[in-house]
Amino acid sequence: MTALMTRNHANFQIILFLILLLLVYFSESINEVAASKWMLFSKQQYFDSKGLFISIVFSVPILMNCMIMVASWLYQSSQLTTNLKRAQLRQRAKIRQTIENPPTTTNKSKDE
């Protein structure tokens, strides 16, 4: 959701992307801390040594957001490339038209 809401704010989205990837990178450490302190915030021990719970509940949604961001960046890049190529083709056509049909200039003297 955040990935789509921030798609027009590139700098914020890059920072968000890096923070999310750092959270996934440190999810093993987060899992270890949560496994040792689980009694403070839960009635059951969810944080096993393999990290299955934190992977499914924490890391997978974050990685999905990151994939959405990358897909959005690829789409925006393709749109930008398409617009650039169209502008180049319009400019070439305009130059070609002026070469083939030069504008007629009439030099009227001030005496007339």
Low-confidence stretches: none
The proportion of strand residues reads: under 5%
> How many β-strand runs?
0
Task: Describe the main β-sheet briefly.
Answer: none
Terminus-to-terminus distance? 72 Å
What's the alpha carbon Rg, rounded to whole Å? 29 Å
Q: Work out the helix count.
A: 4
Average predicted confidence as pLDDT: 88
Q: Give me the secondary-structure category.
A: mainly alpha
Molecular shape: rod-shaped
The string of secondary-structure elements, in order, is HHHH
Helix content: over 70%
Tell me about this structure.
The structure is a single chain. With 112 residues, the protein is mostly helical. Helix content is 71%, strand content 0%. It has four helices and no strands. Helix 2 packs antiparallel against helix 4 and helix 3 packs antiparallel against helix 4. The chain starts with a helix and ends in a 12-residue tail after the last helix. Keywords: Membrane, Signal, Transmembrane, Transmembrane helix. This is Similar to TMEM18: Transmembrane protein 18 (Homo sapiens). InterPro entries: TMEM18 (IPR026721).
Short description:
The chain has 112 residues and is mainly alpha-helical. Helix content is 71%, strand content 0%. The chain starts with a helix and ends in a 12-residue tail after the last helix.
Secondary structure topology:
Blueprint: H1 2-5, H2 10-25, H3 27-36, H4 52-100
Helix pairs in contact: 2-4, 3-4
Keywords: Membrane, Signal, Transmembrane, Transmembrane helix
Transmembrane segments: 53-75
Signal peptide: 1-29
List keywords for this structure.
single chain; 112 residues; mainly alpha; 4 helices
